[in-house]
Design goal:
Length: 125
C-alpha cells in the first residue's frame, strides 16, 4: 500500500506538470517570435519573413543573412523554415522511402516523363 503523503505528492506533481504543458492556442508561434528566436539562436539578421506550407506543415520561411566579419560565410544568405505550430526548425531535406526527397524540380520521374530517352542520356542523381 502506498502512503498517503507519497500519493498526494505524486498527484500534486502530476497536476503541475499538466498545467505547464502548452495549450494548442498558445503553442502557435507568431512572426515576431520566430524572428526573435532565429536571430538570437544563430546570430543572423532576418531580411524577409513569409508564411508558406512546407509539406503538410504551416511554416514561416525566414531569409537570413550572416553578420559581416572576418570569416568565409560573412554576408551569406540562407532560408530557414520554422514550424508555426511548434516553433522548431524544419529540415531542408526529407527522407523518403527510397532515400532523400529533393525539391520537385529535381525529381527524376519528372524529367523522364517529359523525355523518356533522357534516362539513357546520362546518369541522374
Amino acid at each position: 500500500m502506498i502512503p498517503l503523503c507519497r500519493l498526494t505528492g505524486f498527484v500534486l506533481a502530476l497536476g503541475l506538470a499538466v498545467a505547464a504543458l502548452p495549450t494548442p492556442g498558445s503553442a502557435a508561434m507568431g512572426e515576431a517570435e520566430a524572428v526573435k528566436m532565429i536571430e538570437a539562436t544563430f546570430d543572423v539578421q532576418v531580411l524577409r519573413v513569409r508564411a508558406q506550407q512546407v509539406g503538410d506543415r504551416p511554416a514561416w520561411l525566414l531569409t537570413v543573412m550572416n553578420r559581416g566579419g572576418d570569416f568565409n560565410t560573412a554576408f551569406q544568405v540562407n532560408t530557414l523554415a520554422v514550424d508555426r505550430e511548434t516553433g522548431k526548425l524544419l529540415p531542408a531535406v526529407r527522407h523518403g522511402a527510397s532515400g532523400y526527397e529533393p525539391s520537385g524540380a529535381d525529381r527524376r520521374e519528372d524529367k523522364v516523363g517529359v523525355r523518356p530517352d533522357a534516362i539513357r542520356s546520362r546518369p541522374w542523381r
